Amino acid sequence: MADASANRTTRDAGAEIARLIEIMALLRDPDRGCPWDIEQDFASIAPYTIEEAHEVADAIERKAWDELPGELGDLLLQVVFHAQMATEAGMFDFADCAAAISDKLIFRHPHVFGDENRDKSAEQQVRDWEAIKAVERAGKAERGTLDGVALGLPALTRALKLQNRAARVGFDWPGAEEVLDKITEESAELVEARDHLGPEAMEEEFGDLLFVMANLARHLNIDPELALRRANAKFTRRFNAIEASLAADGRRPEDSDLAEMDRLWDQAKAAEKAAE
């Protein structure tokens, strides 16, 4: 561990980034590179980019700090991969990516890099931030309130961003109670669609219900993506406990029934509560 720590403190970040860029260029070299890497394009790599970002978030959620450097490295590779393909097409390179984000950070923090006063409330900072981003969107010909919310975001995250944008111009429910009323309404419409309207209407109403649930999370200051990840993790833990209990008797879930597994679920839940 001491040697690894020493290596981290003596490595030169610029040199390591340059090395990574060189490795990626070689992997994409038509004559000497890797056939798989050579065949890729922006569209084929994009899903991996999203996946690596989620794996970073997962490591943070699990507090797996020893895994985080590797996961961040995997995510950095995605940037380098896209930049290399762009370089080959004569579009831009990694330096352009780094310059773009550096310029953006400086522009968005005039209270740090300019002459604005840093003595302001968090609320004022948010308002200033949104005003700056509005200027950026105008420069990109993004005139609508919802312009620029990326289509490639996870649907739950995009729903939250769309709702935040609309709320900034006053299109929002006053509080959580009104959202809860809307959830009741949307639930009834989903039941109506299930019973009388068919699969397409049912899917639409289910989407509406999910969208309102995301809005409830926003009103309650909950990150819905994080909440759902934690619910997934909880379900995984408890179902694993069911499997472990059955395995102790030489059985598998398919050898059990719902009543028994529900009882084992309650035991796992009680054990978790007792350990808190």
Label this structure with key terms.
Helix Hairpins, Nucleoside triphosphate pyrophosphohydrolase, 276 residues, NTP_PyrPHydrolase_MazG, NTP-PPase_MazG-like_N, NTP-PPase_MazG-like_C, mainly alpha
Please provide a written account of the structure:
The protein is mostly helical and 276 residues long. It folds into 4 domains: 9-99, Helix Hairpins (Orthogonal Bundle), CATH 1.10.287; 109-143, no CATH class; 144-222, Helix Hairpins (Orthogonal Bundle); 225-275, no CATH class. Helix content is 75%, strand content 0%. It is built from 13 helices and no strands.
How do the helices and strands follow one another from N- to C-terminus? HHHHHHHHHHHHH
User: Strand tally, please?
Assistant: 0
Q: What would the CATH topology of the largest domain be?
A: Helix Hairpins
Number of domains: 4
Short recap of the structure:
Belongs to the nucleoside triphosphate pyrophosphohydrolase family. The chain is an all-alpha fold. It folds into four domains: 9-99, Helix Hairpins; 109-143, no CATH class; 144-222, MazG-like (Helix Hairpins), CATH 1.10.287.1080; 225-275, no CATH class.
